[in-house]
Design goal:
Strand content: 25-35%
Shape: globular
Distance between the termini: 32 Å
Oligomer: single chain
Structural class: alpha+beta
Strand order of the largest sheet: 4-3-8-11-12-1-13
Number of domains: 3
Radius of gyration: 23 Å
Length: about 400
């Protein structure tokens, strides 16, 4: 990992210094929090939730930063919004938002039985509550990688994934800097901290790449961007915005993945379904034809147009895969044929086809390439940035 840190220091030396104050990212929570945090939406518009704190804690009012309560032994009650304010065992008259901060490193917080590190904010809105986990990004990255890779890949691939996950976290935090939260838990594949194990491959990868992110030049600024990885690209990757169909500040071109290209035929899959069954899955009347919308550089499908008797239905790839099932529609690299009453999907690879190809990355790691070299092959228009090279409290957040 020394090569990663050395490369990061070199890259950060040639990149312009960021200007925006990181503290501005967290203006919605007045209680002082650790720098470089991410705020994750756990519950949205819930009527109530079971909130448990094990160990000593403080309760602040995020509106003005005042401390409104504290506890030494923990607490376990349903929390809900009343007309007069929030209620968590006791009532908080006139207070519709609270911020619960552990007083000890041993304190843990549970929401509906799921354990979370960091602090928790609860916002009451019109009889419902929103719950947000305020967590340092390094812990967030460990939690995400632990749940997504219960069977770890090669150490250098895990290090590359740690950098990508951290980059994506900073992208979300800076993009939504004025919001009450930066990312929803389900969108970030975040399932709390209970599964994080000390000295695990995921934790080692995060610690070895601490504070390293990728940045992409955008309108004269070097910004973190939305990142992704795919299990097997079948030879080519697609740009993030082409497949996800949303702004990402990411590189505008995909890349070739020679290792996956050599094994393309081995990754071939097919799925056959009747037109009637497919119409039911897609909630359309009848299927008269299917047109594919394809990213030209990679031949990855980002949407389909299903032709009914009298109308058409446009469905993006992710919705289509969710409705058909990821075990059936295994990748975005596919073609469709219709014969008689049957629809045949034939494709290659696995996953959406965006970002780091894990199949190729593993092959590169086995051939001795480190995380920096692996990332440079899949994100050639980007630079590795060491956030520790920034003056305290500064982060490029201007959009």
């Amino acid at each position: 990992m020394k090569s990663i840190v050395a490369a990061a220091i070199l890259c950060s030396a040639i990149l312009p210094r960021a200007q925006a104050q990181e503290g501005a990212l967290f203006e919605r929570i007045a209680e002082p929090i650790a720098p470089r945090n991410i705020q994750i939406l756990l519950e949205k518009d819930a009527k109530e939730a079971l909130l448990e704190v094990k160990g000593p804690y403080y309760i602040f009012n995020p509106h003005d930063g005042s401390r409104v309560a504290s506890g030494l032994l923990g607490k376990r009650f349903m929390i809900r919004e009343l007309e007069a304010g929030l209620k968590w065992g006791e009532e908080f008259p006139g207070i519709h938002q609270i911020y619960i901060k552990p007083r000890s490193p041993e304190t843990t917080i549970f929401i509906n039985g799921i354990q979370y590190s960091g602090a928790v904010a609860v916002y009451g809105v019109a009889g419902s509550i929103n719950i947000v986990n305020d967590l340092d990004i390094e812990s967030y990255v460990k939690a995400v990688l632990t749940t997504q890779f219960p069977t770890p890949l090669e150490p250098e691939v895990m290090s590359a994934l740690a950098i990508l996950t951290r980059t994506n976290a900073y992208y979300n935090a800076t993009k939504a800097s004025t919001s009450f939260w930066h990312v929803a838990a389900q969108d970030g594949n975040y399932q709390g901290s209970a599964l994080v194990v000390s000295n695990s491959p995921a934790e080692k990868a995060v610690d070895a790449t601490r504070h390293l992110i990728l940045v992409h030049p955008e309108n004269g600024k070097n910004l973190p961007f939305a990142t992704a990885w795919t299990e097997n690209s079948a030879g080519k990757t697609a740009p993030y915005e082409s497949i996800f169909r949303k702004e990402a500040f990411a590189p505008e071109k995909g890349v070739e993945a020679p290792h996956a290209a050599l094994a393309r035929q081995e990754s071939k899959w097919s799925y056959q379904i009747s037109k009637k069954s497919l119409a039911q899955l897609l909630d359309v009347g009848q299927i008269k034809g299917i047109e594919l919308f394809v990213d030209k550089g990679s031949n990855k499908v980002y949407a389909v147009r299903v032709k009914d008797v009298s109308e058409t239905h446009d469905i993006d790839f992710f919705s289509l895969q969710n409705q058909i099932g990821p075990n059936h529609l295994q990748s975005s690299d596919f073609t469709v044929s219709i014969k008689d009453d049957m629809v045949q999907f034939t494709g290659f690879g696995k996953g959406h086809g965006v970002g780091l190809c894990l199949y190729s990355a593993s092959a590169l790691a086995q051939n001795g390439e480190n995380a920096v070299k692996i990332l440079s092959k899949f994100f050639p228009e980007t630079y590795l940035y060491n956030l520790n090279a920034l003056p305290p409290g500064e982060l490029e957040a201007s959009r």
